[in-house]
Design a protein that fits this description.
By secondary structure, the protein is mainly α. It is built from ten helices and no strands. The longest helix is centred in the N-terminal third of the chain and has 28 residues. The N and C termini lie far apart (63 Å). The relative contact order is 0.10. The model has no long low-confidence stretch (mean pLDDT 83).
Length: 206
């Protein structure tokens, strides 16, 4: 009996590999520029200079600095979601899951203040205007995925959950955490002890 050979997976060609490498260099350089100058102070020219390339090497891969920022924010959201999942892994009690998840968000941004500063655009009302509908929708899906992890625990921990309020409560909790982090940065030392107590009071309301 003859064994049918499976088709080999096509390896990326030289140009695809080069583009992937350039894309990574540009995104990493852009992250540094955004962290140092913010979105308004950043420019394609500054990103190209930080990446060690010309602006002409960027435009075939990214149409604007907003498109690059969307990639940076998407990678940050993906890493944050992994941290939340890891913190909640192996726990079954909904209230404890919610506490671990919210604390993971706090710790992630507390350890990465530059990512916190960039992430504020995610909670800004003009996000769609800034990024356009396509990029905004992709970021919204990622943010919704993170919210869903916590919202499910709010629903389970609530005696008679009303789903629209569950999502609203979860969104308010994350917004509160971000606001607390911003306030703590402005005040000086982080309030790593205050946050858990506030978080516990919030989750107990469910």
């Amino acid at each position: 009996m003859e064994v049918e050979e499976s088709m080999p997976t096509a390896a990326p060609n030289y140009q695809e590999t080069l583009d992937l490498h350039r894309r990574r260099l540009i995104v990493d350089a852009a992250r540094r520029v955004f962290e140092a100058s913010g979105l308004e102070g950043a420019s394609i020219r500054a990103i190209a200079q930080a990446a060690g390339c010309t602006t002409g090497a960027i435009y075939p891969l990214f149409r604007s600095k907003e498109e690059i920022l969307a990639v940076v924010l998407g990678e940050s959201l993906a890493a944050l979601t992994r941290e939340v999942r890891a913190a909640m892994d192996g726990v079954t009690a909904p209230a404890k899951l919610l506490r671990r998840g919210t604390l993971a968000i706090y710790k992630y941004y507390d350890a990465r203040p530059s990512e916190l500063a960039l992430s504020l655009v995610l909670f800004n009302g003009d996000r769609q205007k800034r990024f356009g509908s396509g990029l905004d929708e992709a970021l919204k899906r990622q943010l919704d995925g993170l919210l869903a992890l916590l919202a499910e625990q709010v629903r389970k921990a609530t005696a008679k959950p009303f789903l629209p309020m569950v999502r609203l409560e979860t969104s308010a909790l994350i917004t509160y955490l971000v606001g607390l982090l911003v306030s703590s940065r402005a005040a000086g030392p982080t309030c790593s002890e205050t946050m858990p107590r506030c978080c516990w009071r919030t989750t107990r309301r469910t």
